[in-house]
Amino acid sequence: MFLLRVITAPFRWITAPLRWALKIALLLFVAIVVYYAVTLVQVWLTSRQYAPVKAQAIVVMGAAAYDAAPSPDLQARLDQAFILWKDTYARLIVCTGSRESGDQYTESEVGEMYLHNTKGVPTSDIVEVGGSDSWTNLALAAAELRPRGDTDVLIVTDPFHEARSMAIATDVGLTPHPTPTQTSPIHGTAVIPYFLSTAAAVALGRIIGYKPLHGLGDMAIGSSGGGRGG
After folding, report:
1. What whole-number distance in Å separates Cα of residue 108 and Cα of residue 103?
2. Closest CA to 85 of 46, 118, 44, 126
3. pTM of the model
């Protein structure tokens, strides 16, 4: 309260009701900053977790693909999924992701081709689902897995994206375990904006829900005339 008095001292000429409104606004701002900071720390702590366990499926979050070839980011995720599959942590790999305008293949198709043609994973052990963002990737993966009874999953994505992906996976009825790629090409100071944006999405998703947040993203994309949500 001492800090509050110091900050509001220059405004003591303001009427009492307005002064209270300013105090409430300041307290609300401080609460939002603290909430975001705590969420950011939680996102960072989750990014450091790597806890593979025996599961029923490995879900690979989609990332950019260059026509028939995975981007370095997607390849790092696919390589991690292959390691988990090879070490028999799960028998099934779910590749997610749709296509950008002009692409010949979806991200999930590129993932399937890479795992099969480059790594030798049988196509019978790979499932493809679409999805233009994190919510639809996992919602479609859940729609494919739940009828099989395969709800215990390993989530493979970049470390900074793990907390959000795990939260959404829980929302859509899966039981996720963190297995972020250990070879992400995004590292050093380059990850800072990704951590900041992920923390903002997680903080907001916890309040309004991840499905409504996905809907807000769709509205933003529609109003801007294109693009892709994260």
Report:
1. 12
2. 126
3. 0.85
| Closest to 200 measured CA to CA, from 211, 181, 213 | 213
DSSP letter, residue 132: S
Q: Is 127 a residue whose pLDDT tops 50?
A: yes
Q: Where are the domains of the chain?
A: 57-224
| DSSP-assigned states of every residue in 173-184 | T-EEEE---SS-
CATH of 57-224, one of 3.40.50.2030, 2.40.50.320, 3.40.50.620, 3.30.70.1270: 3.40.50.620
Sheet holding 126-128, edge to edge: 126-128, 93-95, 57-60, 152-156, 175-178
Task: Say how far apart CA 158 and CA 76 lie, in whole Å.
Answer: 8
| DSSP category for residue 133 | S
Given CA atoms 88, 90, 94, 95 in this order, what sign does their dihedral have?
A: negative
Residues 12-36 pLDDT 10s: 556 667 778 888 899 999 999 999 9
**How is 59-105 classified by DSSP, letter by letter?**
EEPP--EETTEE-HHHHHHHHHHHHHHHTTS-S-EEE-----TT-SS
